[in-house]
Amino acid sequence: MTAVVAAPPDTNPDGTGGSAGQPPLVIDVHGLNKHFGDKHVVRDFSLQVRRGEIYGFLGPNGSGKTTSIRMLCGLLTPDSGSGTCLGHDVIRDTAAIKREIGYMTQRFSLWEDLTIRENLDFVARMYSMPERAATVQSALTELGLDSRQNQLAGSLSGGWKQRLALAACMLHKPKLLLLDEPTAGVDPKARREFWEELHGLAESGLSVLVSTHYMDEAERCHRLAYLAYGRLMATGTVDEVIHGQQLITYAVTGPDLSALSQRLRTTPGVGQITPFGNTIHVTGRNDAALVAALAVLGGDSRYQIERIDATLEDVFISLMNDATDNFQ
Amino acid sequence: MNTFSFTRWYGIILKEFIQLKRDRLTFGMIIGIPVMQLLLFGFAINADPKNLPAAVLSQDNSPYARSFVRAMENSGYFRVVRQLDNEAQANELLAHGDVQFVATIPADFSRKLARGERPQLLLEADATDPSATNNAIGAMQQLAATALIRDLAGPLADQNPGPPPIDLRVHRRYNPEGITAYNIVPGLLGTILTMTMVLMTGLAMTRERERGTFENLLSTPARPFEVMTGKIVPYILIGLIQVTLIFLAARFVFGVPMKGNLLLLYSVVILFIAANLTLGITFSSVARNQLQAMQMTFFFFLPSILLSGFMFPFRGMPEWAQWLSNLLPLTHFLLLVRGIMLKGNELHELWPQIWPIVAFMLAVILIGLRFYKRTLD
After folding, report:
1. Of A98, A109, A111, the CB nearest to B221
2. Does B213 contact chain A (CB < 8 Å)?
3. Does A303 map to a domain?
4. Among A29, A34, B4, B194, which residue's beta carbon has the most beta carbons within 10 A?
5. What pLDDT does residue B96 have?
6. Percentage of chain A exceeding pLDDT 90
7. Cα of A35 to nearest chain B Cα, Å
8. Residues near A155 by Cβ (< 8 Å), separated by ≥ 6?
C-alpha cells in the first residue's frame, strides 16, 4: 500500500480555531488515555465540540468510542489527560457534569419492569426536578406515548425504546447530549425522525455528540471524528475529512467484477476496492498508479471507468486500513 | 437423522466445562462448600456439648461439697468458672448468659448427708436452649446417685443402697418445661431474616448490572450513599412484616412467652435487618451477576445457620468455631431475642450482644463503599 501518513489526529486548528463569533466550546479535552488491564483502549484523545454542534463519532467496533464517551460524562476516570466538559473538569467535577448532560447508553438501559411513566418519573426524581409531574406529563405528550404511559417499557419496540430513552435523557434539559449508537437496530424511518429531532435540538442550542456506524448519519453531522484502535485518525466537517485524505476513486462498472477485484487488489497503486452492487470503487492516493492499474482493462468496451469523488465510506475504510498498518 | 450424536453430546459437555472453568466463583463454591461443610460438621458441630460454664454457690464448706463439685467437673459436662456468695449473683450470671448452670449447695449439706437425710442440691439451668442443657442435666442426675459413693464408705456405707444420697432439684429457668419451640422460634426469626434480607438485596443491585440499567443509574447525579440506603429501606419494611408474622405465630400458635419489652425487641430486629441488608448490598457490589450474589449468600448463610447456636448448641463448639461464630450477627441476634423474649432482659444487659452486630455492620459498609463502583472501571 502506498503509505501516506494519516492526517494528524490532534486538534485541527482550521475550523475549530478561535475566530470571533464562534460559539463556545462545550467539550474541550486533551490527551485523554484509558487502559483496561494492559490494553490501551484510548490513546491521547483530544476533542473540541462547540455549542449547537452535532458531532459525529465514528470508528470500527472496539475503537474506543464508548470508552471515550464514558470518560466525557464522568462514568470512567481517565488515566491521564485533562479537559473540561461544559466548563467542568472531566476528572474532578464529574458530579457537576452528570447534572448537565444527557447520556444515552448503547444498550437500552431504562427499567423494563417499570412503565413508561414510572421510568420518566424516576429519572426526573434522580435529577431532583422541581416541577416533576408537569415535566413528565409534557414529555409523555411530546413523545406521543400519553395513551400508552402505563405500558411496561420492556414491551416497547426498538424504535419506541430509543425514543423513550432520548426523552428520558432530555427530561432535565441537559446542555449536552452524549448518544452512544442511539440508532443501532432502529428502522430507517424511525432513524430519519430521530435525526430530524436531533437537528431541531441542535438549532435550539443543544450540543450533541453521537456515535454511529451509519454513513448517512455521519453525513448529517456538522463535524466528525474518526477513531480507530483508540486513536483519533481524522476530525473536521464531512468535506474536510474526505478531502483531507486526498483519495482518488474510480468507479468501474461491468461484468465479472469480483474476478476483476481479485486481480486489481494485488496491483501496486491500488489502495482498496469496495464493491457497490454493480460497481466497484477502486481507491488509491496516486492517480498515475491507479490509471496504470486500470489500464489492464484496455479498451474492453464492456467496462465503464469514471473518476468520482471519494465517499465518506471510502475514506473511513482507508483510514481503518492505515490504522491497521500503523498500530497492529 | 435425529439419532444420538456423540459429537454433539460431547460438544455440549465440553462447552459446559469451559464455561464452568471461566466462572471462578462457581468453581470455588463447588470446592468450597463441601470443604466448609466437612469442617463444620466434622470438627465444629457437637450435639453433646461439654465443658459448659457453671457457677457454684456453696453454703457448706465441707469435704463432701468439695468432692461433689470435683465430681461435677470430672464428668466433663461442667466447667466451674465462679464461686458465688449469694443468690443475686446467681440470677445475674444466668440472666446475662455468662454461665449455663448454677449449682447451689445448702448449708446443711454435709450434716444431712451424714445423717442420711438426703440433702437437697439445687441445679439451676439456663434452659433457653434445651438441647444445650439436657445432657448435662442427665449427667448431674447420675452424679447425685454415684458421686459420693466413695466418700460414704466405712461407717456410712449403709447409706449406699436405696435412693440416691442427694435429692437433686433441677430448675429449668426461662423454659421450665424444656419446650424446644421456645428456642426454635427466635432462631427461625434470625435465619429467615438472614436468608431473605441478604438474598433480596444481593440480587437487587446485580440485577441492575445484568440488565444494563446500572450504567443509567450511574450516569445520573445519584450518589453511592443514596443508592445503597435507598435500596435498603424497602427491604427493611419487608423484614418487619416477616418479623411481625413470626412474632404473632410465636405468641398465639406456639405459646412462646414474651417477658421483655416489645419495643426493645423490634429495635434489635431492625438493627439485625440493617446488618444483613448492608451485607446483601455489599455482596451485590462485589458479585458480577445474580448467580454469584446467590452463591455468596449461601456461603454466608451456611455457617450462620450451623454455627450460630440455632441448630447446634453454641457451647458445644471448639474455641475456634466459637470465635468464628461470634463474628456472625445471627449468633448475637439469637442471644438478644432469647434474652428479651424468655429472660426479659433490659437494654443494659444486651450491650455485649449489640455492639458486635453494629461493628459487623460498620465493617461491611466500609467494604461495600469501597467496592461500589461509582465509575465503571
Report:
1. A98
2. yes
3. yes
4. B194
5. 85
6. 42
7. 10
8. none
Residue B81, all three cell numbers:
468458672
Q: Rounded mean pLDDT of B17-29?
A: 83
* Res A174 pLDDT > 90: yes
Size of interface A-B (CB pairs under 8 A): 49
Is A111 in contact with B221 (Cβ distance < 8 A)? no
d(CA B235, CA B200): 8
pLDDT score recorded for residue B13: 93
Q: What is the pLDDT of residues A117-170, one digit of tens each?
A: 999 999 999 999 889 999 999 999 988 888 999 999 999 988 889 889 999 999
* CATH class in words for B52-173: alpha beta
Question: Do A98 and B220 count as a contact with CB atoms less than 8 A apart?
Answer: yes
Convert the pLDDT of each residue in B197-212 to its tens digit: 888 888 887 888 888 8
Which residue is closest to B214 within chain A, CA to CA?
A109
Identify whether residues A170 and A83 lie together within a single domain. yes
Residue A1 lies in a domain: no
Q: pLDDT tens digits for B274-322?
A: 899 889 888 887 888 888 888 889 889 988 888 888 888 888 888 888 8
CB proximity B216 to A under 8 Å? yes
Q: For residue range B104-125, list pLDDT tens digits in order.
A: 988 888 888 888 788 888 889 8
- A252 and A137 within one domain: no
Q: What's the structural domain count of chain A? A: 2
Task: Find chain B residues with C-beta within 8 A of A34's C-beta.
Answer: 377
Instruction: Report the C-alpha gap between B272 and B304 in whole angstroms.
Output: 13
Choosing from A243, A270, A292, the residue where a domain stops is: A243
Query: How many Å lie between the alpha carbon of B209 and the closest alpha carbon of chain A?
Result: 10
Can you give the residue ranges of every domain in chain B? 52-173, 180-371
Best of A76, A111, A119, A162 to disrupt the B interface (most B CBs within 10 Å) is A111
Name residues 318-377 of chain B within 8 A of A (Cβ). 375-377
pLDDT at B224: 75
In angstroms, what is the C-alpha Rg of chain B?
Answer: 27
Are A300 and A176 part of one and the same domain?
Answer: no
What pLDDT does A326 receive? 62
The strands making up A80-85's β-sheet, listed across from edge to edge, are A39-50, A25-36, A80-85, A88-89
Is B74 within 8 Å of B147 (Cβ atoms)? Answer: no
Q: Is residue A322 situated within a structural domain?
A: no
Contact B216 A127 (CB under 8 A): no
The domain containing residue A275 runs over which residues?
248-309
pLDDT of residue B372: 65
Average pLDDT, chain B: 85
A210/A297 same-domain check? no
Are residues A117 and A159 located together in one domain of the fold?
yes
In the prediction, which pLDDT does A180 show? Answer: 93
Please report, for the domain that includes residue A292, its CATH number.
3.30.70.260
Average pLDDT in the B140-162 region?
Answer: 68
Q: Is A284 found in the same domain as A166?
A: no
CB contact B3 to A (< 8 Å)? no
- The pLDDT of residue B377 is 54
ipTM: 0.78
Q: For residue A210, what is the enclosing H or E element?
A: strand A207-211
Q: Is 70 exceeded by the pLDDT of residue A20? A: no
Q: B222 — contact with chain A (CB < 8 Å)? A: yes
Contact B212 A111 (CB under 8 A): no
User: Cα distance from B236 to chain A (closest Cα, Å)?
Assistant: 21
CB contacts of A90 in chain B (<8 Å) are none
Do A228 and A154 have their domain in common? yes
**b/e string for A35-74 if b means 16 or more Cβ within 10 A?**
eeeeebbbbbbbbbbbbbbbbbbbbbeebbbbbbbbbbbb
Task: Using CB atoms within 10 Å of the CB of residue A237, give its burial: 0 to 12 exposed, 13 to 18 middle, 19+ buried.
Answer: middle
Is A139 part of any domain?
yes
Question: If you measure CA to CA, which chain B residue comes closest to A114?
Answer: B213
Q: Measure CB to CB from residue B221 to each of A34, A95, A111 and give the nearest one.
A: A95
Q: Are residues A239 and A252 in the same domain?
A: no
Determine the pLDDT at residue B154: 58
For residue A158, the domain's CATH number is: 3.40.50.300
**Neighbouring residues of B33: CB distance < 8 A, sequence distance ≥ 6:** B298, B299, B302
Last residue of a domain, one of A243, A264, A297: A243
Closest listed residue to residue B219, CA positions, set A214, A139, A100: A100
Return d(Cα A172, Cα A127) in angstroms, integer: 7
